[in-house]
From TrEMBL:
One term under GO cellular component: cytoplasm
Residues in FAD dependent oxidoreductase domain copies: 34-384
UniProt protein name: FAD-dependent oxidoreductase
UniProt keywords, alphabetically: Oxidoreductase
Organism placement in taxonomy: Bacteria, Pseudomonadati, Pseudomonadota, Alphaproteobacteria, Hyphomicrobiales
A GO molecular function held by the record: oxidoreductase activity
Coiled coil: none
Length: 428
């Protein structure tokens, strides 16, 4: 029987095309180390690789298998900048801070591609991303954004597309305009997970799967992480569990909410298709965003159904096919070979959450759908912090991230109501 993640529904196209997926042992016994990392997604594995290469004694534990969460199952789009547009960050934080956050994200993009190349990780990188407006009244904002990015933030790779160009580049007339970014692209995320784990292991990091953390405590300058079959004692701890924190650590849980996002993969569309002839990835202006791209073998990978609770849907194929048909009526009966989901962590303002949640314990997550490049880079920034330079990580730590209202009991129902209201607004 093929492996099925116990925390994410469906089997992904990525799992069937990533090649060998090494298994790592479960922890059995106690360990002492410099840094213990909880969570085997992009953040934790990147931190482990950079720390181990710098000479730290690192132990990383993952409750399931590396990449079972959003890191191995996401849409694969890198994006540009932070989740919020640079001009929105400028309005909130001022130009110098907004420019620093944008430059940090650009470095994150370059780092991901350089890390993959230097370590010979084939991530199936394909260039180009389009962001498109599903309402006419948004078009002027996209046009202004392209000009602002070039003239104010020094990023010349975004160009405005009118409705005609948008239709030609998408192969669909359902959008009113948008932007095309030639300075970014999209990847096979599970290949990056597998490759980063190999780099970390080869550098000397001790990696353990099927090893949940049952508790974290910081006492007298030391950190203790308990697991079912052993305790890890360390000088420092990184929590990188994102949407899967549960009751492990209450501060992160109050600020990061899991939402489910779901993707379908079609059969290959063929060489004569007019769908995305340039091979770019796409995201649209809905609050409940739709995102899609073609794979290296010509399949349409389409994500667009979000839920705001952790009940696994049984009908991923049906909903994804319906959304595909709205944009591409000719594909209304297309065969969907894979349907899968995963849970991403969001914060109230859709900006990353980085905080020292107890002495010597830093938690990182809440990438809010923008985590492919940011999470990998934040692992590097954490390694810099351990080495004594916290300045760049503090740029994210200092962002204003309020807790979700309602406490543990009411925050999920309140968020469900709020985000369904946004979904309704998308349709009006």
């Amino acid at each position: 029987m093929p492996y099925q993640s116990p925390i994410s529904p469906g089997r992904s196209w990525y799992e069937d095309t990533a090649g060998p997926r090494p298994e790592y042992p479960a922890l059995d016994g106690n360990r002492r180390c410099d840094v213990v990392i909880v969570g085997g997604g992009f953040t934790g594995l990147s931190a482990a690789a950079h720390l181990a290469k710098a000479g730290s004694n690192v132990v990383l534990i993952e409750a399931h298998r590396f990449g079972d969460g959003a890191s191995g199952r996401n849409g694969g789009q890198l994006g540009t900048g932070q989740r919020a547009w640079a001009e929105e960050l400028e309005a909130e934080y001022g130009f110098s801070r907004a420019k620093a956050l944008f430059d940090l994200a650009e470095e994150a993009k370059a780092h991901l591609l350089e890390f993959a190349a230097a370590n010979k990780i084939e991530i199936d990188y394909m260039p180009g991303q389009m962001s498109v407006a599903h309402k006419q009244r948004y078009v002027d904002d996209y046009k202004a954004h392209a000009e602002i990015m070039a003239n104010r933030f020094g990023y010349p790779h975004i160009t405005f597309m009118d409705a005609k160009e948008t239709a030609e580049r998408l192969g669909s007339a359902r959008y009113f305009g948008g932007t095309r970014d030639t300075g970014t692209g999209h990847i096979h995320p599970l290949k990056l997970v597998i490759g980063t784990a190999k780099v970390a292991a080869q550098a000397g990091a001790q990696l353990f799967e099927q090893t949940p953390a049952t508790g974290i405590a910081s006492v007298s300058g030391k950190v203790r992480v308990t697991t079912p079959k052993g305790t890890i004692s360390a000088e420092k701890c990184l929590i990188g569990v994102n949407a899967h924190g549960g009751t492990l650590e209450p501060i992160s849980a109050a600020h990061i909410m899991p939402i489910g996002s779901f993707i379908g993969a079609t059969v290959p569309l063929g060489a004569d298709t007019n769908v995305l002839p340039g091979g770019e990835a796409v995201d649209d202006s809905r609050f409940v965003v739709r995102y899609f791209r073609k794979s290296t073998d010509g399949r349409l990978l389409f994500g667009g159904r979000e839920i705001y609770a952790v009940n696994d849907p049984k009908d991923i194929h049906v909903h994804i096919r319906r959304q595909i048909a709205e944009l591409y009526p000719a594909l209304k009966d297309i065969e969907i070979t894979h349907g899968w989901g995963g849970y991403v962590g969001i914060t109230m303002p859709r900006k990353p959450f980085v905080r020292e949640v107890m002495p010597n314990v830093i938690s990182v997550g809440g990438y809010s759908g923008h985590g492919v490049m940011l999470s990998n880079f934040f692992g590097k920034l954490y390694a810099e912090t351990v080495a004594g330079n916290r300045d760049r990580l503090r740029l994210i730590e200092d962002l204003k991230i309020p807790a979700f209202p309602g406490g543990r009991r009411f925050r999920a129902p309140l968020l469900f109501l709020a985000l369904n209201w946004y979904a309704l607004r998308d349709r009006i």
